[in-house]
Write a structure and sequence with these properties.
Blueprint: H1 4-9, H2 11-31, H3 38-68, H4 81-84, H5 88-95, H6 105-111, H7 118-132, H8 157-172, H9 186-198, E1 204-205, E2 208-209, H10 213-223, E3 230-235, H11 242-251, E4 256-264, H12 267-280, E5 284-288, E6 303-308, H13 322-325, H14 343-352, E7 354-364, H15 374-384, E8 388-393, E9 407-412, E10 421-423
Parallel strand pairs: 3-4, 3-6, 4-5, 6-7, 8-10
Antiparallel strand pairs: 1-2, 7-9, 8-9
């Protein structure tokens, strides 16, 4: 049974955290308005925020470990780089990456004004982080979207340094607290808010609507009803990873035995997802690419839990691609989703990779439930084979920047529940 009160209890805390964070971001953007274009500001902001959090995450881990062992005054950030080398193997084993004390965010931020070429200093730090994680393929390219040598921030080196110093200082003041205790998907929320500041489509990007925290939690709870442990969770359109990470909160990290899997086509949100997974210290396998055309994890064991919020009514190759016509993910329904609307293609992909004892919860636009043509044929296939466990209508105004109402399609390979339609007031 889903406890609605438990979900609601987190909403006020989430809204308070978001309001404070958004106000701080707005102040920074206003201060730098005119000197950094909107898109470039987003990239710089996210890159430096990531740098701050991985630094604090690593520093806290080492300090906590040492203090639990009795070294009560231990402070990793205060060590010399040579002294810290003795901790390298321990840190790499647990965190997967290594940062020398002198290159931690707080130490670089203190000395930022003294660096002649601050952008080069930061670039070396980021390269060293990636190089330290050479055994972790998922760390590769995490800083690629953050071009520290871009003339767009300012062609003059002195002015570029001034802007970078200001970003370091202001991001150091952001009210984010302990990353593990944050009630929102921090990077997903920041990305969405930054988009809303500069994009006329607000929370929408190429058919994508970023999933609010309370909707993410609802999907997670629906997908694990009656379960205390699950093998693996999967999101074929994982965005910044908020849906996947809700399972750590709902079930506890130790109860997700096989880890977190996902795929994302947008390179920026793909990197944000990897950052989120890395910082939460969970076992993950996140791939970059088009789930419908080039799906990863094909050889993997079917997934016991699948959740997704696929982009609404985007175009895809459909029946113009003979490989898709004969693809075992789509062919059982006897029809392909129309080229103008890939919604049902995501549904069929999800069903194909769902374990026999699994549950899938997918956010869809309600029109998917009544449109004619190929989509009607696919719906008939789902119903005739008793794959539809429930269709849950959600209220309007849940998603940032749009009034659309959505529904949740719940699928099971062997549904024991009669087909019904549940409307939420």
């Amino acid at each position: 049974m889903i406890d609605a009160k438990k979900i609601d209890s987190t909403c006020s805390e989430t809204e308070h955290s978001q309001t404070a964070l958004h106000a701080a971001i707005w102040r920074i953007a206003s201060d730098l308005r005119g000197s950094i274009d909107g898109w470039d500001f987003r990239q710089y902001f996210l890159g430096i925020l990531f740098y701050r959090i991985i630094s604090e995450n690593l520093n806290s881990y080492v300090n906590d470990t040492k203090r639990e062992a009795g070294e009560l005054n231990y402070d990793y950030a205060a060590l010399s780089d040579n002294e810290a080398e003795s901790e390298r193997n321990l840190i790499l084993k647990e965190k997967g990456f290594f940062i020398r004390p002198s290159k931690l965010f707080r130490n670089v931020r203190k000395r930022a004004a003294n660096f002649i070429n601050l952008n080069e200093t930061l670039e070396k730090v980021f390269n060293n982080v990636e190089e330290s994680a050479q055994n972790r393929a998922n760390m590769k390219g995490l800083f690629e979207f953050f071009n520290l040598n871009s003339n767009k921030i300012n062609a003059a080196a002195a002015q570029r340094k001034e802007k970078l110093v200001k970003l370091l200082v202001t991001i150091d003041d952001l009210p984010i607290g302990n990353y593990d205790d944050i009630s929102i998907d921090l990077f997903g929320d920041v990305y969405e808010y930054l988009m809303s500041m500069y994009d006329a489509n607000a929370g929408r990007f190429n058919g994508e609507y970023f999933t609010p925290s309370k909707v993410s939690e609802l999907l997670a709870r629906i997908a694990v009803v009656g379960k205390t442990k699950v093998n693996k969770v999967y999101d074929p359109t994982c965005g910044s990873g908020s849906l996947l990470l809700k399972f750590a909160k709902v079930m506890g990290e130790d109860n997700i035995r096989g880890g977190y899997y996902g795929q994302e086509i947008n390179i920026t949100t793909y990197n944000l997802c990897r950052i989120n997974m890395l910082l939460h210290g969970v076992n993950y396998d996140i791939a970059h690419g088009d789930t419908l055309i080039n799906p990863h994890h094909q050889g993997a064991e079917p997934f016991e839990v699948i959740v997704s919020n696929p982009p609404y009514s985007i175009k895809w190759d459909g029946n113009s691609n003979p490989l898709l016509v004969n693809d075992i993910r789509f062919s059982p329904a006897g029809a392909l989703a129309p080229k103008s609307r890939a919604d049902m293609a995501f549904v069929m992909h999800t069903l194909s990779w769902l374990a026999k004892n699994g549950t899938a919860a997918i956010i869809l636009h309600p029109s998917v439930m009544y449109r004619n043509g190929a989509e009607q044929k696919i719906r008939k296939y789902l119903i005739d084979n008793n794959y539809v466990d429930a269709v849950i209508q959600l209220p309007t105004d849940l998603f940032y920047g749009t009034t659309i109402s959505v529904c949740i399609l719940v699928l099971k390979k062997k549904s024991s529940i009669a087909k019904f339609y549940l409307s939420t007031p």
